[in-house]
Automatic annotation (TrEMBL):
SUPFAM superfamilies: CheY-like (SSF52172), EAL domain-like (SSF141868), Nucleotide cyclase (SSF55073), PYP-like sensor domain (PAS domain) (SSF55785). Keywords: Phosphoprotein. It comes from Ventosimonas gracilis. Residues 311-443 form the GGDEF domain. GO terms for biological process: phosphorelay signal transduction system. It comes from the Bacteria. Its cofactor is Mg(2+). This is Diguanylate cyclase. The modification 4-aspartylphosphate is found at residue 66. InterPro entries: Biofilm_reg_signaling (IPR052155), CheY-like_superfamily (IPR011006), EAL_dom (IPR001633), EAL_sf (IPR035919), GGDEF_dom (IPR000160), Nucleotide_cyclase (IPR029787), PAS (IPR000014), PAS-like_dom_sf (IPR035965).
Amino acid sequence: MPALPSSKSPVTSAPILLVVDDLEANLEAMRALLGGDKHWQLRSANSGEAALRCLLAEDVSLVLLDVQMPGMDGYEVAELMRSSPKTRYTPIIFVSAIARTQELILRGYSSGAVDFILKPFDPPVLLLKVKNLLAYESNRRELQRIGAQLERQRAFSDSVLNNAAEGIMVVDEHGQIQYANPTMAEFTDSTVERLQKTAFCSLIAEPKSERDWQASSFYQHWQKRQVYRLYEAELQRKEGASPLPVALSCAPLPPPQRAMVIIARDISVERELRTRLEALIISDPLTGLLNRRGFYLAAESALERAKRSNNPFAVIYLDLDGFKRINDSLGHAVGDELLCQVGKQLKTELRAYDALARIGGDEFTILLDALNQESDAARIADKLLRLISIRHQLGNEAFSISASAGIVCYPQGGDTVEGLLRAADMAMYEAKQNRSGYHFHSPQMTQRAKERLKLEQSLRQAVEQQQFSLLYQPQFYLQSGALRGFEALLRWTQGNTANISPLQFIPLLEETHLINPLGEWIFAEGLSHLKKLREQLGSGFVLSLNVSPVQFAQPQLVENLTQLLHDRNIASSQLEVEVTESTLMSDMQTTQKHLSQLRELGVKVAVDDFGTGYSSLAYLRQFDVDSLKIDRLFIANMLSSRRDAAIISTIIDLAKHLELEVIAEGVETEEQRKWLLAHQCSTLQGWLVAPALPLEQALQVPRQLSWNQLPLDKG
């Protein structure tokens, strides 16, 4: 009976079992015995030639081969199978009615058989042998596939190492280089052969503390089985050549290899390989997040970076409230789905370089790297807790949950990963007991962070409810006493029960970008008041409006000012914008563009707090400004400090030569006024004349000041 064509075989992963016998009765018996098992597909052939055709057409996993057949017997079929690469390792069971003599058995095994069964056979025994051999063949093929894959990976790794842009070495426990790639040889002006067996530390030019192997950080971290990175180092090169600056990274190789791999400059390949190898042992199988081990590794890396760079980071320990109740009432499947959903929600709100882990049950840990201040951790924790507390819909079930979080900051809360996690865990339990949402590991930190967060929330409410107002401090020319104009100053006048000063709330407005909507209001309100001031005082004065760094960076700044001036029919020459030195220097291209547009519009530009920022005179040549405002700190000390007096005198002389106006801020005494007048300062502003005034009082400011009638009446 000819073998069935492979083209008509069903597409399946079940292995193929081929039975070869020249007697149809025997084939029928084999089909009855073997044909009903779903673990394999049965094929049959009634001659050696038909068997070979089937073997060439299909991927046969096991052959039951009759020994005695007319034409081509079983031995010849077996020998031909062993001569073909495709069937060389296919297992063969000889089935024979001839008595098993030693000669026949040896001939069968020499032909390639793995077993010899005598007819009549015991069906259960045959079935067991078929199953075992098919399992063996499946394992062999899987090993063959894995071997081929490993070989491809080895070839790939060799290609990467030999062609990588990074220098890569393997250094043994004694500090001797066992392997170096061509790039490393290039880095050190050497050869691969010369680098082998060279002491690794002899290649290090800087830092010198790493040149003793036993005392080096590389050896210490290798002993601890820790990854170590040295971001600033130099490698020795040939005599007369400058050392090569590099970033070095080392990682211990897994046991039993007592060695480490060291990468120069770029560690991306090493990181990728390490990520692949450790993915299974550092990930939580349910959520796909880091597990406890993975979080420890991430936290240890952050700790090492923080110790070198003094950059703070924070750890948040978060626990779901009432999770056991959900598990008990809705089942573990719903509980698991909830954990996955919470993990996804948390991940979407974190930065790419933050670390998120599920370390057990309903507990999550979060590593917030590179924080500016501890209150940032409170803000993020509050945001995450509010995110979790939304109503969750899982299938047909809908419910709400809450969470508690403990926060600890490095270095205040500890200098080890274990210590930081312990402190965060304790703070979490404190938060859970007090039902406070989140809690810092110390009362002092909790109070500071909450106060700042409370201030931010109050500011948001103040912006939304327009609780701010503008006051106007007059400026007068020193020589003539004529009114120059007013500086509009922002004050928080409603809802500010703590009497928080502008020095506290304005930086927070800028940091949170709340200054953007508020800045638009300041422009609109200030220009509306300018219109009223002009009706009372004429058009011979200017109004100065402060522009924050955030506002100044906005591309539509000048466009918005132009529209506001047009809508209120105000001449642009009556408007002056004040910016600080640091604002001007933050983005030179934007600064040049805005100053050019403001000049074209006709708006004046004043440099606020001159002398306290970059203090670079070069920008006065590059930037088109109209006036310089001397900071009040210099004015306060100029009569008692020769240095401050010299600085002010120099600024006045410089401005005079550059044809810039000089405005002295914070003038409070008659002696200060006389000194400024004697040194030809053009304009003053301060409490000597008047504080910042509400609009109603500013409307009463005289156009011409009498110096012997100061201060002005503020009533």
